[in-house]
Design brief:
Blueprint (H helix, E strand, L loop, with lengths): L16 E7 L4 E7 L4 E7 L3 E8 L2 E5 L2 E5 L4 E4 L5 E4 L6 E8 L6 E3 L2
Antiparallel strand pairs: 1-2, 2-9, 3-8, 3-10, 4-7, 4-9, 5-6, 5-8
Protein name: Cupin domain-containing protein
Pfam families: Cupin_2
Organism: Hydrogenoanaerobacterium saccharovorans
Length: about 110
């Protein structure tokens, strides 16, 4: 058992990107934030499935070429090998929870 406080972690890119509260041993748990216009490059995972739950703002998430606009309270489940791309197309900050499981130290494959 352990407790983590979000304020003790930092976003990967200053004020954007994932902020991991837990990495392994069985799953990853992160808060993801994008300011207006920011995105995260298209990629997929070989083994891990990923879930995004929108906390605030609007997330435009493209999965295998299909675009979804998610709002607070909505969740999207992404299976392994599904190419996904996330961006904030609004004029407000977007925050969401991201979970990845089963944990793999290296499993992200970038796509152009």
């Amino acid at each position: 058992m352990f407790i983590v406080d979000e304020k003790d972690s930092e976003y990967r890119f200053g004020d954007n990107g994932p902020k991991y509260l837990m990495k392994g041993p069985r799953m990853n748990f992160a808060i993801v934030q994008f300011t207006p216009g920011k995105d995260f490059p298209a990629h997929y995972h070989n083994v891990m499935e990923e879930n995004f739950y929108i906390l605030e703002g609007t997330a435009e998430i493209t999965v295998d070429g299909k675009v979804y606009n998610l709002t607070p309270g909505q969740m999207i489940h992404i299976e392994p090998k599904e190419v996904h791309y996330v961006r904030n197309t609004s004029d407000k900050v977007m925050r969401m929870v991201s979970t990845l499981a089963p944990y793999q130290e290296v499993d992200k494959v970038d796509v152009e």
